[in-house]
Input
Amino acid sequence: MPRPLHAADPPSLGRVAFVLLRTSHPGNVGAAARAMRTMGLVDLRLVAPRHDDVAERPEARAFASGATEVLERARRYDTLAEAIGDAALAIAVSAEPREFGPQPAPPEACAADAMAVLAGDPSHRVAFVFGAERTGLSIDEVQACGRLVGIPASPSYSSLNLAQAIQVVAYCVRRAALDAAATEAPTPRGVPDAGEAGVADAADGDDGPRLADQRAVHGTLEHLERALLAIGFLDPAHPKKLMPRLRRLLLRARLRPEEVDLLRGVCKLMERGGPR
Ligand code: SAH
Output
């Protein structure tokens, strides 16, 4: 029997979010929804889109074609921080590396990395972050993410259309999810797709440590900044590159919740001016 072309959607895909920043064209958002849907991805997050009603716009619906449900379920956020807050790992997608940001890796490698994080704990989520059509991602936005995907393209023209970049990444994520699922115990018959938050997928039982989410990590960085100001290590008149460097360090470290607590405890004492 030949293997079917279209394999069932691995449940881990339900814990992968695609975050789109400041999109301007409703058609691109619709095409993005379709690109995701064809690969079994459903968690679309829109940060400050130009049109608040983008999901209802006829152009978006036309480009989404059979994937209007992804559009309708898309959640809207004011900031990138909120949109990636629940993710154990945020991955920027950009053709351009940024100073103090993560080094670019091909989408296949990042997709495999994303699957490893998802397998680490059933509560883990991963967010891929895409830039606006015209402006892409800012330095700050790339630095806010723990990894960076660059789609290797022609050096003479490396900028893909937003929805096409989403399609490439979504395909790699699906392939990685299928590869990961193939090495795990098969889901028993009759068990419905998990898909959503908090529902264990087939990776349940892996002994990877639980990671802190981005809300906790970025909260720690803000706390660290206040503490370093309090002890005079960070000079607001000459901040140099201290915070971008620390941000890179903390994001690279993939902190666990208890490590976040530890760092926050240190920060508290620094703010208070040492032991009482
Ligand atoms: N003029 C913008 C292009 C934005 S294209 C710029 O210079 O950044 C819209 C989005 O598609 C980008 O922000 C990125 O998320 C994605 N994208 C396009 N081409 C890409 C590539 N070669 N590698 C990775 N992401 C890409």
